[in-house]
Amino acid sequence: MRLPTRGARLRRILGGALATALLAGCGTSLAGGSDSTDTGVASVSGATTVTEALADNLEVEAGDTAYDESAAVDVTLSGASATSGSDAVTSEDGTVTITGAGSYRLSGELSGQVVVDSADDGVVRLVLDDATITSTTTAAIHVVDAASVVIVLAEGSSNALTDASAYEDTSEEAPTGALYSTADLTIGGTGSLTVTGNTNNGIVGKDGLVISGGTIEVASVDDGIVGKDYLAVSGGDVTVDAADDGLKSDNTADEGAGFVLVSGGSLTVSSRDDAIKGVQVLVSGGTVDVTGSNEAMEGSLIVIDGGDLELHSADDGVNVASSDDSAATDGVAGGRPGGGSMAADASLSLVVNGGTLEVWASGDGLDSNGNATITGGDITVFGPTTDGNGALDVNGVLEITGGTLLASGSAGMLVAPSGDSAQGWIATALTAVAAADSEVVVSDAGGDELAAYSIEKDFASVVFSSPDIESGETYTISVGDSETSVIAGEPPAGGRGPMGG
Q1: DSSP 3-state assignment of 351?
Q2: Residue 145 DSSP symbol
Q3: pLDDT per residue as tens digits for the range 151-200
Q4: Is there a contact between 394 and 500 (Cβ–Cβ < 8 Å)?
Q5: Domain residue ranges in the chain
Q6: 473 in Cβ contact with 445 (< 8 Å)
Q7: What is the pLDDT of residues 251-306, one digit of tens each?
């Protein structure tokens, strides 16, 4: 891998299987994509795969969840105190403090807080084995200092972390989540963990955060899971219910940082703002189910190489935009197929190379303020029913070279792919709005059926691309008893209201 520039720290990828999973995709590092007010992000080369993106990024440090059980220190939690045979564990006034590297097995119930404050070079490994930690004053677990921390969810165990409804310490150095770490943090194992963030966030890693296993449920009054430098999910079954963002990486100050990577596992996310947000959002595997959000996925670069994604949003389903609001160029795309009347930002990009992507959006379905490229995958967009948004909204060039795309929605902002796309496409507005659950059938000039879809929302336009479509040939789009003849590669004309493309 290339070395990160601008003084970024090198991180080793630990564990061969995890490393293989993390590096099985595509992309590039780009500016923007977070709530931070710091605008010092430098753009990098335009990578088009997750692997390329990761080569430009900080390297992911995945801690080892394996440990020697016979050497683990037992820490028994009881009430407002704990007992242990190790000098590295102290208990006072409800605070249990661990000051040395090693493996510590925590069990029982604690009304208080566990603090990790280790100056050692080694890993601090917390094995949660039926541990319940509830704080009434601050975070449940606070990693103040450590080389790195690994939380292991013991096999068959059920664990819970709950923070206070109001923190006594509200300074800048105070924790902001029920599980809060200033060091690199890995969460894995095969047990379960419930995290409740009553004041702010659920899980916060102020460095890098990796989730490699376990059944994890997070509920929070603000963000669900935050990894500052990166948030990488390679395994496990993760459920997030957040009042703000669901999963987020928010370092916009350092080049190659601020990315969310999903390479495995299962994610179920419900949020009242962005479900998955980062400077980059990179997906190479796993299952992502956004059951509700304002915007389901947002970043300056979004690359999907694989995986099974279903995204539901009240606004945009997939939104590629800069973190600098003044640079955003959201607007009606028009003038030519795949081109926009608003200026496109060449540093912003959406790339889909594989996987299955299904988008349910009340705003734009796939929205890029820069360019968009589809080289593979199976994409279905159930877009908006009102004309202020479109199933596709690309300010730059929308190029298709492979895969299958079916995008349906309103016709007021109908955007078609670029006429220079290597793969053929057809796009048309319908003569009337079709009701939800209507079937769309695409047939060639000989009457052979090429594709059939049941559209589960009202729609007034259809864009379709597959390897079976040849530019210049005539195709028929049938919806019920209505048939529309379309020439592949020609911009849509007529229909309901003004259209781009």
Answers
A1: strand
A2: E
A3: 999 999 999 999 999 999 999 999 999 999 999 999 999 999 999 999 99
A4: no
A5: 59-185+202-208
A6: yes
A7: 999 999 999 999 999 999 999 999 999 999 999 999 999 999 999 999 999 999 99
Contact 290, 318 (CB under 8 A): no
SS (H, E, C) 187-221: EEECCEEEEEECCCEEEEECCEEEECCCEEEEEEC
Strand, helix or coil at 29? coil
Compute the chain's Rg from CA coordinates. 24
H or E, element range at 21: helix 16-22
Q: Which residue in this structure is represented by tokens 């590629």?
A: 320
SS (H, E, C) 354-394: CCEEEEEECCCCEEECCEEEECCCEEEEECCCCCCCCCEEE
Retrieve residue 426's tokens.
């057809």
Q: How far is CA 216 from CA 160, 225, 243, 291, in A?
A: 10, 11, 17, 17
Write out the DSSP string of 428-468.
Answer: EEEEEEEPTTEEEEEE-TT--EEEEEEE-S-EEEEEEE-TT
CB 286 within 8 A of CB 265: yes
Instruction: Report whether 239 contacts 261 (CB < 8 A).
Output: no
Q: Which of 129, 139, 79 is nearest to 109 (CA)?
A: 79
Closest CA to 438 of 481, 404, 476: 481
Alpha carbons 96 and 83: distance in angstroms, whole number: 9
237-242 and 215-220 beta bridge pairing: parallel
CA distance 406 to 143: 47
Structure tokens at 250: 């928010």
Structure tokens at 428: 């048309």
Q: Global pTM?
A: 0.88
Q: Dig out the tokens for 108 from the structure.
A: 């029982």
Select from 304, 300, 293, 309 the least CA-distant residue to 381.
Answer: 309
Euclidean distance between CA atoms 223 and 202, whole angstroms: 7
> d(Cα 108, Cα 118) in Å, to the nearest integer?
23
